[in-house]
Amino acid sequence: MYALPHRLLSLLQQPPECEAMAERLAPLEAALGYTFARRELLRVALTHRTYAHEQRDGWDSYGVLEFVGDAVLDLLIAQRLWLDFPDADEGVLTRLRTAVVSEAPLARCAAGIELGSFLYLGRGAELQGMRARPSVLSDALEAVIAAIFLDAQHAGRDAYGAAWEVVERVMGPQIDAVGIHDGVDAKSQLQWRVQEIHKSSPRYEVTETATASESGGSLAPTFDAVAWVDIDGARTDLGRGRGDSRQKAETAAAAAALVGLRA
Fold first, then answer.
1. CATH code, 218
2. Which domain holds residue 202?
3. Of residues 262 and 23, which shows the higher confidence score?
4. How many domains, the chain?
5. 185 an active-site residue?
6. Which residues lie across from 226 on neighbouring strands?
7. Given 40, 66, 139, 142, the catalytic residue
8. Whole-model pTM above 0.85?
9. Of 42, 122, 143, 154, which residue is 20 to 30 A from 72 by alpha carbon distance?
10. For residue range 201-233, what is the model confidence (pLDDT) as tens digits?
């Protein structure tokens, strides 16, 4: 059995909020598919720093767990991707892992189990809508993964196995949907797709116009781009995009083209 860090042990030695906490967190345990031996760890994983600061009741925030959860999640996802894409090199696997464990996808998975509704937030954070903020949801999910890992470890169980079962349950569909080109910028993806389909490369036509800035002062340039491809000597437009730079406009056009190609 592994010992918990002193900082967490001191929290677990406090008088527990047994009945109230169990009733509040039981639905989340059901969604996770994991029952905690030390539910206090889950309580810490759900405590935002604003609540800890306002209440000053001895409960620490999930920052103490987020670091561990990030590392555990990276390892679990790395192993899964390595098995799913055995021929991919290190650079590709790193890109795919980032596509799975970055803020936006983690926040979507957290929202899928309504994690935000279980958070302990300070009054100001509540008013600012942090319960649904992607950065908060992603950090809290990492902390929950750490809480599961540490709870199982402290109880003498298979910590990685316990964490993996929850990750599969909460993030499985998203991991299953990962493709070899995920995490690649839109222009690169379009390059590959167009070469695959038309044996040619996409081109971009960009026009620049000047529009009044929001402050009403000097004119700010706006760029409009069209992604197109030459098919048998004829131009075929694939997608259009706009941005405040040529690069952004071309990227937006490529993203629109990809949507059209997938339709």
1. 3.30.160.20
2. 186-262
3. 23
4. 2
5. no
6. 205, 240
7. 142
8. no
9. 122
10. 999 999 998 765 555 555 678 999 999 999 988
